[in-house]
Every structure is written in structure tokens, then in C-alpha cells.
Amino acid sequence: MSEVIVITSGKGGVGKTTTTANLGTGLAKLDKKVVMIDTDIGLRNLDVVMGLENRIVYNLVDVVEGNCRIKQALIKDKRYPNLFLLPSAQTRDKTSVSPEQMVKLIDELREEFDYILLDCPAGIEQGFKNAIAAADRALIVTTPEVSPVRDADRIIGLLEANEIHKIDLIVNRLRMDMVKRGDMMSIEDVVEILAIDLIGAVPDDDSIVISTNQGEPLVGDDSLAGQAYMNICRRVMGEKVEMLDLDVKEGFFKKLSKLFK
Amino acid sequence: MGRVMEQPVVIKSNKYGLTVCLNNEPDFETLRSLVAKKFEESKKFFKGAELAIAFEGRELSQDEQIILVQEMIAHAGIKVPCIVDVDVAKEAVMKQAMEHTKASAEVSENGDGKFYKGTLRSGQVLESESSIVILGDVNPGATVVSKGNVVVLGTLKGSIYVGAGGNENTFVAALSMDPMQIRIADHIARNSDGPEKKDKKKLLKKKDKQEEQPMIAYVDAGNIYIEPITKEVLADINI
């Protein structure tokens, strides 16, 4: 049974694409057959984060317009043979695809894949509507700041209005030191406002910046963020994984950073 | 009244209604068509208005008054809750009459309430003709508009507008009161512009005690008051 998951946030720059890349890679690591679709037409990013930019021949718009078959446009990941990417077009815009076309495309992919991850563009316009049209469930990415949380709230309302009721929250770029000082919202604060289930929290970690720049998702490695993403992958699959005690996490993190100093 | 008599139908208005000055000369049927014509011309201006009506300058039987008022309703789309006695067509009387009928209408409007379950999120608007109880939070950026009262069994952080029909005797109550803006009838109060710089540490800290307890907002002498819900406060609330 395949599951179509849209990764969305409303606000730009909170880590949708990074999350999609890491979840896709993580689920593939867990032996699932996964395809990631970059629905951000005109602002192609997911291929860069995955390090697959140089392999693009056809894209999402080509498939929808019938210039090629789906198989031709799917890019096989260089690390995992069961991970695929359908890149977006860089030279077109969001109006090149309609929600109906997305539903049709994804229905074809459902037969072959366990997980279909949709990297949603920022905003609530056409691109967002395309991305959520075929989704079974949604992952909301937000950082613990006031305006991304506000936008996330709006997005949740729109998703519910579109009959998507399985919505989980990822709190990204959490800085425990700031939370402790009272300068940043805690996970509890964010969950209280948004009133949806938390599926994971990812700490603010330098290694994420490095990994995205290198085009190598860090999911599953030793870094804190890598562990956090792996836990999210397991939870997405329905496993019960204990929420890491963030204070312990922080202690570990501090020890680690002290070691390297 | 000399000039008035030159025209068979003249409409005078005040804040609460209309005085229709009629000439004694034409027969009733002519007068009726003249009234119809006059109100037809003013259709755009009067449409949908609620007005008390008084007649002046001519003795009319009750049946005749009703016929003329029906013409007005049909041709200008006005609502006429009451006809005021010919001799005492004073603004004060009209005001009193109008407010009396209005108040009784509002009581029945507020009499029944509705329930809404769920969190109201940014961008969502909940509008209600009646009072409403919300089982959930009202998040920042969400709006609730009600002609009656609103009770939030959760956190109120959005904007709220009660007594939207102009009824000042309405209130907002919430388990946790931290709204962006409160409007009660024609009165508006907004949240403070965030904490003082000194309180930066407190910026994201838990809300202070005041906001944690159930609060109620109401209008008294033109000001909006937000107070913890106590027996004394509730005793002063008129529904």
C-alpha cells in the first residue's frame, strides 16, 4: 500500500526541501521504495540537495505534458537503487500543472512505490494546491518562531479544508540553549498553538548546512540531526519510537562540541 | 407648513424614522399612487432600512395607514416595525418605539446559541447570527463574528467581534484570554503592542497568571473591560 505525503510549511526557508531529501533517503535506507517529487516548479531545489542536478533530462512538466513517459523522467538516486526523484522544471511556472494532472500522475506512481513524497513550494497559491491535491497525509515543517508557526497554522486550516486530516508536525532548527534561556519557543509551545501531533523535532545543526551543500542527505549518520531524521522516518512508517529526551540530547551535543573544541 | 401643502406628499426624516406629510386635497387612491411613486424614487436610499413611520397633515384611518405603509414597504424595500401616532410624531417617541422593538428582536436573536468544535486557525472566519460557544482555540489571525455572545472554551488569541448588530449588552468569555482585538458593538480594544523591552526574557515565557484564568470582556459606560470571571462580574452581565 502506498502513501502519498506532502511536506509543506507555508513559510519559505524553514527546511521543507531538506526534510524531504532526508525523509526520502531515510525511508529508502529502511528498504522502502520511494519517489520524491519536487513540485516547486520554477524554483528547482530538491535535485541540488540530493546531489542529482546533473542527471536531469526530463522533468515534472514534461511528464504532465506528455513529452516523455514517467519512467524516463524519474532519476534513480546514486546511493540507493530504491530511491527516485522526479525533478521540477526550472524554466516554467506553477500554472504549467493543474491539481487534476497531479492526481493523475500520482495515481500512476502509487502502483509502484511505497512512499511518494511531495516537496511543496512556499505559499498557498497554485503550487501549494498542486502539491496537496493528491496527498493522503501531510507533514508540516516549522521552525520555533512566531511567523513560521502562524503560517503553519494557516496551512493546517487549508489542509483540513481540503480533507487532509492526517497532519503531523516537525519542529525544525530547534536550539535547546535558546529554549532554556527563554528566548525561543519550546516544542511544547509550538504544539500547543498548532494542536496537531508531533512526529519529530530536529535540532539546529551545522552538519545540515554542510550536508545540503554537498548534496548528501545526513539522515541516519551520527549527527544529532541525522538521528532525529531517522527517528522521523521510523515514525512515518508507523513504528513507535521514543521521543528523544532533548535535555539528554543537548547534554550529548554539548559533550560532542566540547570534544571538538 | 404652507410650502409643504403645495406638494401632496413630502417625506421628512429623522434618525429613527420618517414623517410623511400628506396633503388633504387629493382623494385617497391618488394619494396612494403618489406615495408609491415617491418611495419608488427613493428606493436606493431607503432600501433595507428599519424605520418608524408617522403621518402628518391629514387624518387617516388605521386601514388607510396600513395601506400606505404597505406601499412604502413594497416600493422602497424598507422595514416598518411600528407606526407612530399622528399627533405625537416626535423623534423621541420614534426613538423609544424603535428601540423597544429592536431590543425585543435582539433578545430572541440571542436566545439560541450554537456550538463550534475545533481549532480556528489563521485565515479562518467564523460568523454567526446567534451566540456561539467554541470548543477549541481561536488562533492568531482567525476571526469570530457574532451578533450575540461568544464563549471560548480554550485559548482566545485571534480577533473577536461580538454584538455585531450593534448590541452593547454582549460579552466575550474565554478560558485563556489573549486576543489580538476585541470588538463589542461599536467599541474596539486591541492587545498591547507586545511586552516591554525590559521583559525580553519573558517574551516567550508562559503567559502571566492573569491570562491563565478565565476572563470575560464586556462594555460598561463606553469602555471595554476585561476581568477575571467572578460571581460579582457575572451578576452584572445582562443577557
Explain the overall architecture.
Chain A has helices spanning 16-29, 46-50, 60-65, 70-73, 99-110, 126-132, 146-161, 176-181, 187-194, 206-214, 224-236, 246-260; strands at 3-8, 34-38, 75-76, 83-86, 115-119, 137-142, 166-174, 197-203. Chain A has an eight-stranded mixed sheet, with helices on both faces. Chain A contains twelve helices and eight strands. Chain A is α/β, with parallel strands linked by helices and 261 residues long. Chain A is globular and about 55 Å long. Chain A has one domain (3-260): Rossmann fold (3-Layer(aba) Sandwich), CATH 3.40.50.300. The mean pLDDT of chain A is 92. In chain A, a hairpin with a 6-residue loop joins β3 and β4 (83-86). Chain B is of the alpha/beta class. Chain B has two domains: 2-108, Transcription Regulator spoIIAA; 112-236, Pectate Lyase C-like. Chain B is 29% helix and 33% strand. Chain B is built from seven helices and 15 strands. Chain B has helices spanning 2-6, 28-41, 43-46, 62-76, 91-111, 209-212, 231-236; strands spanning 9-13, 17-22, 50-56, 79-84, 113-117, 125-128, 131-135, 143-146, 150-156, 159-162, 171-177, 181-184, 187-190, 215-220, 223-228. Chain B has a six-stranded mixed sheet with strand order 5-7-9-11-14-15. A five-stranded mixed sheet of chain B has the order 6-8-10-12-13, with no helix packed on it. Chain B has a four-stranded mixed sheet with strand order 1-2-3-4, sandwiched between helices. In chain B, a hairpin with a 2-residue loop joins β14 and β15. In chain B, α2 (28-41) runs parallel beside α4 (62-76). The longest helix of chain B has 21 residues, at 91-111. The two termini of chain B are 46 Å apart. Classes of the chains: A alpha/beta (261), B alpha/beta (239).
